[in-house]
Amino acid sequence: xxxxxxxxxxxxxxxxxxxxxxxxxxxxxxxxxxxxxxxxxxxxxxxxxxxxxxxxxxxxxxxxxxxxxxxxxxxxxxxxxxxxxxxxxxxxxxxxxxxxxxxxxxxxxxxxxxxxxxxxxxxxxxxxxxxxxxxxxxxxxxxxxxxxxxxxxxxxxxxxxxxxxxxxxxxxxxxxxxxxxxxxxxxxxxxxxxxxxxxxxxxxxxxxxxxxxxxxxxxxxxxxxxxxxxxxxxxxxxxxxxxx
Length: 244
Hints:
- The chain is mainly beta.
- It has 2 domains: 3-112, Cupredoxins -  blue copper proteins (Immunoglobulin-like, Sandwich); 124-243, Cupredoxins -  blue copper proteins (Immunoglobulin-like, Sandwich), CATH 2.60.40.420.
- It has 1 helix and 20 strands.
- The strands form 4 sheets. Strands 9, 10, 12, 14, 15, 16 and 18 form a 7-stranded mixed β-sheet that branches. The protein has a 5-stranded mixed β-sheet with strand order 11-20-19-13-17.
- It is globular, with a radius of gyration of 19 Å.
- The N and C termini lie far apart (50 Å).
């Protein structure tokens, strides 16, 4: 019956991991450090580079259970750990490997964990950002066909509401990470969510994937908004959110 909090962090540079505890379900309470107004129970959590989740587990099933990554080959490469409950008597669940396509956290119901932003007091600004690059082995990655520091910044006044619409024309996914404040994920691949969750990183699918998000400009400064894959960031996929 003991309750355990797991703080999961994807610290890898390129790979998305789908994390599952074989046995008990995960009760997700926070996303990228932001509390969910209504925690949700899931079987697995997809995590792009830089994403973080807090999850609670109730130790109500005696035994030994694997906390593992589901992608083919990852568990065998060492991406799993054994969780032992007191009095487990040597029993343990078998580790599994499942082939997964492009998954989002919303497939597991995390989009029902509503959270809120600070209220906006200014105007609404909309920015369309096209992510591209990586064709024919190129190491150039662009936002609206420009590489940092030539990318166009997103100018905002304190209190403005910013709506950002990403479209990914490249062959790779991009975990886009905003410094300085968090945002609500409004839609992914054209599917809108009635109860968006608040994050500071979101994965934009390859090959025409899209994400719409919004945030309130409450923290003055010049803030990086970039792909969290180091090769993509070094290749130019960075812009600035400038809040005056």
